[in-house]
Amino acid sequence: MKIIDISKNYYEVVRHEKIKGTMFLSESSVLFQYNEENNDERCLKIFDFRTKTTLKVNLPVHFEIKNVQKFVDIHGYFYIEVSDINGLNCLFASYDRSEYFVRLTCGLESENSGYESVIYHPLLSGIIYANLKIGKNIYTHISMNYGKNFSMMKLKKKNGLCDGGSCNIKLSLPTVIHRNLYFQKDWISAFDMFDTSGNKLIGEHLISFDAGQNWKSVPFSYYHVQILNQGGIALGFNWRSRKIMYSFDEGKTFYYNKLHGSKEVIVNSWKTGKFQNESLILFLREVENKTFLVTHIDFSNILDRTCGNDDYYSWNPPIQNGACFHGREISYKKKKLNSMCVDTEPDLKILKSKPCPCSLDDYRW
């Protein structure tokens, strides 16, 4: 097996001779799963494109590899999902990009489900979503500290599913992470929810406004949440009732408006412009006449001023065991909920980054 760089006149980046196996390509590295010649034992190697080094993966003892399910190189860490010879699916990580991996959790959803068992927050490092088997059911668990601990979801006002704030809920973890659907802002996450008894999508969406620490069920279904004004407006539709629903305060209060006639169906939507000129274009189809309609939605009459310094506050990403992690406390600039203004900050701005004392809880042994 070999990898070549066609942009550099087919320069050979790495080669492995006399082995049969599979490659798993990630952002800045590649993992090889192979059997050595005359040896049935499965082996793993990683070639790091940045350092131009090859590492032979060392998993904890007594773990006999059957197959690698996924390899991810994100936020400076290696993650490997592996099944053993007994069919147990586990997640391993190398925090220092070395050959030594630690076990984070086991009991991941089977690779035959058609969905991902683990996804990683693309914008905030350390946040991991995992669908784990609990008894005979699969429920979504979330880690806020690079997989050191996984806890059940916390969903507000969901009777029958939650016990003391922890909930038996399964999210549909996508195979491809579209930021404009699932992670539209650093602190906003939105997913479809499964019916855990039948393992089918139920057309209900959950949204988190604090990077996954707490979740809310949105009152619209069958359509992904749309985020406007840098996260200041959460908007959605119900194509069956043809209602548009929106919130200015992260889902505490929703407002409703009905769109068009009874025989028109929402087909798609598209965001356009930014800041004061941001709006949503809604595409509808008239069933009987087979014609298309276009609706333009904006909030310029409500948001008639630009945010000032007093409209923002200091926000800390959710980290288990306080705001300090790995010796650093970081605070970001985020718009206040009650500030009805146009947010012109396109990205999270760091307000302060200061050292803080490390603790044993910061590290996995």
Automatic annotation (TrEMBL):
Domain Sortilin N-terminal as annotated: residue spans: 90-262
Matches recorded under Pfam families: Sortilin-Vps10 (PF15902), Sortilin_C (PF15901)
Keyword Repeat attached: yes
Domain Sortilin C-terminal: 280-363
UniProt keyword annotations, A-Z: Receptor, Repeat
Listed SUPFAM superfamilies: Oligoxyloglucan reducing end-specific cellobiohydrolase (SSF110296)
Gene Ontology process terms (BP): post-Golgi vesicle-mediated transport
GO cellular component: Golgi apparatus; membrane
Protein name: VPS10 domain-containing receptor SorCS1
Species annotation: Thelohanellus kitauei (Myxosporean)
